[in-house]
Design goal:
heterodimer; A: about 200 residues; mainly alpha; Rna Polymerase Sigma Factor, Chain: A; 2 domains; 9 helices; about 0% strand; B: about 250 residues; alpha+beta; Immunoglobulin-like; five-stranded antiparallel beta sheet; four-stranded antiparallel beta sheet; 5 helices
Chain lengths: ~200, ~250
């Protein structure tokens, strides 16, 4: 029987690379690290605003992804979201252990506040593009409240304190911004269904 | 918002916070009570949760420092060589998956599998995807507090206001492990696990993520903790969501 040629690791999906890592394939691990290092470091740096701390977080996130690859379940979510959530949780831990203020929040709010094209590969994905468009259309004060809650894990009380605004205002900003993002994603999904 | 049932309007803000995992205390309890009878709000929370999860995708990439890739690959190589750091979820030659806390007496290698199962859970729970239930049996949330299963392994119920909300397993071997499943907590988002030693010293082990009130998590215990008295799960505001007595 003729075997199909093995695809290059660079051609494999994220999920296939994780499956390869789970089987102990070194080439998959190298390809995975190369594919994800900018995304993971970008998130960590965006959150903590410190290159050294961000590198520690990004390294640990990738090592944990490698270690846990055997039990990754693609049915429960994408590999990208999975790896980024590992990094996000590590960044939250690091900030809270060091009792750091989210110094990266201002920059992150700014980064997520424009929809101009960026060079990174992730921006080319339709989901990221749709998200950035949606975020760009949200007033900065709402976007900031949402990012503090969704990315940094702050409660509405904490957002209110950080932003020096009443609790009710913080709640409204968070809810309004998240609803806008949700509706944008829903519209994007509907558009895809119509096209197909 | 698409809610439309009786009393839905007053929960508008809380739905978003529940989806983000940042709602705590009485507000969370009231909303969860409402969700039990309101499929519309439940659907709304699920949609908002998906939106919240996707936000990380929008953060731009950044070029890591020179040598980053080499350093990561060095760490992977070191981890691969270190037999004391098991590959999570990996099968051992001649071994079998841990089938649950009850059953045949466990050998040392079986306890190692507990650690492996626990470690496997760490992956999924820490990122909010839940796990295939490594413990089986629906989590055995009715387990009695502080039961010595075998050797160094202790099983205890995770209780909230007298209701079982999961199970904690502690392997006080070397290295020691803590593994917990959380069920029906009525919360999403990050929670913190901490333990108190027999001497009264409290140690925070780490943070993990609940999704739809469920999750599982594991952590290797720091050295020299000695016997543990209790374990707790705290919300991000410090509120104790559930606790387990580990005294045997």
């Amino acid at each position: 029987m003729r075997r199909a040629p093995r695809p290059e690791t660079g051609e494999l999906t994220d999920e296939a690379l994780l499956a390869g890592m789970a089987q102990g394939d070194d080439a998959s691990a190298v390809a995975f690290v190369r594919r994800y290092q900018r995304r993971v470091f970008g998130l960590a740096y965006g959150m903590v605003g410190d290159a050294g701390m961000a590198e520690d977080i990004a390294q640990e996130a990738l090592v944990r992804a490698w270690r846990h690859a055997p039990v990754f379940d693609a049915r429960r979510g994408s590999a990208t979201t999975w790896v980024l959530t590992i990094a996000r949780n590590l960044a939250i831990d690091a900030l809270r252990v060091r009792r750091s203020v989210p110094v990266g929040a201002d920059e992150l709010v700014g980064l997520l506040g424009h929809d101009r094209p960026t060079e990174d590969a992730l921006a080319a994905t339709e989901i990221a593009g749709g998200l950035r468009n949606a975020l760009a259309g949200i007033p900065v004060e709402q976007r900031r409240a949402l990012i503090l809650a969704a990315v940094y894990g702050y409660t509405a009380h904490e957002v209110g304190r950080l932003e020096a605004i009443p609790l009710g205002t913080a709640k409204t900003r968070i809810r309004t911004a998240l609803s806008k993002v949700r509706h944008a994603l829903d519209e994007q999904a509907s558009h895809h269904e119509d096209v197909e | 918002m698409t809610t439309g049932g009786s009393g839905c309007g007053r929960f508008a803000d809380d739905l978003a916070e529940l989806a983000l995992g940042t709602l705590t205390g009485r507000e969370r309890a009231e909303l969860l009570g409402h969700l039990e009878g309101c499929p519309r709000c439940t659907e709304e929370v699920e949609g908002l949760s998906a939106a919240a999860d996707s936000l990380l995708l929008a953060v731009p990439e950044a070029e890591p420092p020179v040598g980053f890739e080499v350093r990561v690959l060095d760490r992977l190589a070191a981890a691969r060589r270190d037999p004391s750091v098991p590959r999570l979820g990996a099968r051992r030659r001649g071994g079998r998956r841990w089938a649950g806390p009850a059953g045949a007496p466990r050998t040392r290698s079986a306890r190692r599998l507990v650690a492996s199962a626990a470690a496997a859970a760490l992956l999924a729970a820490s990122v909010g995807f839940g796990i295939g239930r490594a413990t089986g049996g629906g989590g055995r949330s009715n387990a009695a507090p502080g039961v010595a299963l075998n050797g160094n392994v202790v099983e205890a119920s995770l209780l909230s206001a007298g209701h079982a909300r999961g199970v904690v397993y502690v392997d006080e071997g070397d290295p020691g492990w803590l593994f917990m499943t959380v069920e029906r907590m009525g919360s999403v988002g990050p929670v913190t696990c901490e333990v108190t030693t027999a001497s009264g010293h409290t140690v925070m082990l780490g943070t993990f993520w609940l999704q739809s009130g469920h999750g599982a998590w594991a952590s290797q215990l720091p050295g020299n903790l000695g016997p543990l008295r209790s374990a707790r799960v705290r919300a991000s505001d410090g509120t104790v969501l559930a606790s387990a007595s580990l005294s045997v």
